[in-house]
Amino acid sequence: MRKVKTIILKEWAEVFKNRLVLFTVAFMPLILTALPIITLVATGGLEDEMSTSVSGSPPDEFFGELCTGLSEMDCVQVYTLNLFAMMFMLLPVVIPVTIAAYSVVGEKMARSLEPLLATPITTLELLAGKAVAAFVPAVVATWLSFGLYVLSAWFVVNETVFSYLLDPMWLLAIFVVGPLLTITAVSTAIIISSRVTDPRIAEQLSAVVVVPIIMMMLGQSVGYIILDKQMIVILGGATALLDVILVYVSVHLFQRDNILTKWK
Amino acid sequence: MIQTENLTREFDGKAAVDRLSLEIGKGEVFGFLGPNGAGKTTTVRMLTGLISPTRGTARVMNYEIGVDDIHIRRNVGILTESPGMYDRLSALRNLTIYAELYEVEHVERQVEKYLRMLGLWDRRLEATGTFSKGMRQKLALARSLLHEPSVLFLDEPTAGLDPEASKLVRDFIRELQGEGRTIFLCTHNLEEADKLCDRIAVFKTTLRVVEKPSALRQQLYGRQTVFHLVERADQARVLLEQLPAVKSAKVIDERLLIATEDPDRENPKLIRALVEADFEIRFVGELRHSLEDIYLQLIGQAD
């Protein structure tokens, strides 16, 4: 464990001196938190206009069961909250990619991988240290952002709408599925980082893991997908299974011999 | 401390190291000489448990490579060809990280010891990215010693260093030699190998020779005497060739090179013969072949 801790602290000491990484870890969550708050404030300004609208109730074909028993205004806000809550499933995927994608190929570029591998550290310890170093900032930044989002929403929306934000479904998504998605992103990025020779390629290829989450967000924004508890549970289970496979693959693909002799 | 038997490593079917068999004793400084691409780094990587051999076996401190790699890595020190420091981190932080990874008991004490020993203590808090090449090399050397290894692999320790830094590193290697550590020194620098090594191996994919530098000179060239004559060197050669004690005689740049079995006994006779034949001798000396001559001859044979 001591060596894992050493690797984690080493990674943090290194990466947090990199402005790009700092931006990704600190500013992106802030931006993604500010955006929904601004949107909620803006939609709040439409309240008068909506309350005088002719229909007075939200269209069922678009919102489905999401808005049952809600006014049109509340429904729009609940929809907005749900849409942006998905951002907090995007963050745990986006943040670690920058750190993890650089983790192995960065060492190779700096020629520090050989002295590191010459120490009595096992592959599992090395990869665990690098993975945790990418995992923790992502999860902490996501949870802090979500906390900030919830706190801000409390000032902006009414109690009925606010209760939707603390729905167990979203808590499950943010506090369980989010970290599982982070493991997916980290494992994928480490696998890629172990196989490529350029950090830029590693980062670009690793960014592909974001695509399914963006597709889900798009699907939800056009009403094609309405996230419910069942879908979150299925997503969590599938991600957990995928994580087991990816962690196994990442450890087995990390061949010291190949990494040292085939990378020029 | 190090034994290899038919150690072979192939890349895509082509041998980089071919049937290397060596035995290196405790406290020995062993020079491993060879041109670029000879397989020196591959050999070091195999002996430090970083890569596996294709065939053959080796033991380092009685640990077998490919079987006890983690024990080997725990007990040997390696100075890689490139220092490979974490440039954004300070010298102190760099060494602390490695001391922890090498499971050093008294991390702070060991880090301080080697930073002071290599003259880097005053700059310990500076990022290594700001260090000169010589300082980085010294820091890498400190890193390789933090866990007090009995066997040390040094891959081109003075490559690219200025003469002052090279001397400092060489002096430090001598100190380590004095502490009884076994040192496997890969180098291009023949003068360095000549000064530091107890034995040298000339290597280019296969092992050409392993000997003490002085024994190699004797083995390849015998002892030769050089006569600087005022004139008529060719005529002097013809004269001396007739003497039974002379094994060979040749003229190079008006210098007469004579090889005999026993120069101490035969040289006075040769000088007398030349003087009696009215040759004017300007200077007489022993021809000392450099390690470079030996190296080039052996590598030439390898080609």
Please give a handful of descriptors for the protein shown:
heterodimer, A: 264 residues, mainly alpha, 15 helices, 80% helix, elongated, B: 303 residues, alpha/beta, Rossmann fold, Alpha-Beta Plaits, 2 domains, 4-stranded antiparallel beta sheet, 14 strands
Write a structural description.
The complex is a heterodimer of chains A (264) and B (303). Chain A is mainly α and 264 residues long. Chain A has one domain (2-262). Chain A is 80% helix and 0% strand. Chain A is built from 15 helices and no strands. Chain A has helices spanning 2-15, 19-44, 47-51, 60-63, 72-85, 87-103, 105-109, 113-117, 123-156, 159-165, 168-195, 199-206, 211-221, 229-253, 256-262. In chain A, helix 2 packs antiparallel against helix 6. Chain B is α/β, with parallel strands linked by helices and 303 residues long. Chain B folds into two domains: 2-211, Rossmann fold (3-Layer(aba) Sandwich); 222-288, Alpha-Beta Plaits (2-Layer Sandwich), CATH 3.30.70. Chain B has helices at residues 40-47, 69-75, 91-101, 107-117, 133-145, 163-178, 190-196, 213-221, 233-241, 263-276, 291-302, and strands at 2-11, 14-24, 29-33, 55-60, 63-64, 76-79, 151-155, 182-187, 199-204, 206-211, 224-229, 246-252, 255-260, 281-287. In chain B, strands 6-7-8-3-9-10 form a six-stranded mixed β-sheet, with helices on both faces. Chain B has a four-stranded antiparallel β-sheet with strand order 2-1-4-5, with helices on one face. A four-stranded antiparallel β-sheet of chain B has the order 12-13-11-14, with helices on one face. In chain B, helix 3 (91-101) crosses helix 4 and helix 4 (107-117) packs across helix 5. The longest helix of chain B has 16 residues, at 163-178. Chain B is elongated. The model of chain B has no long low-confidence stretch (mean pLDDT 86).
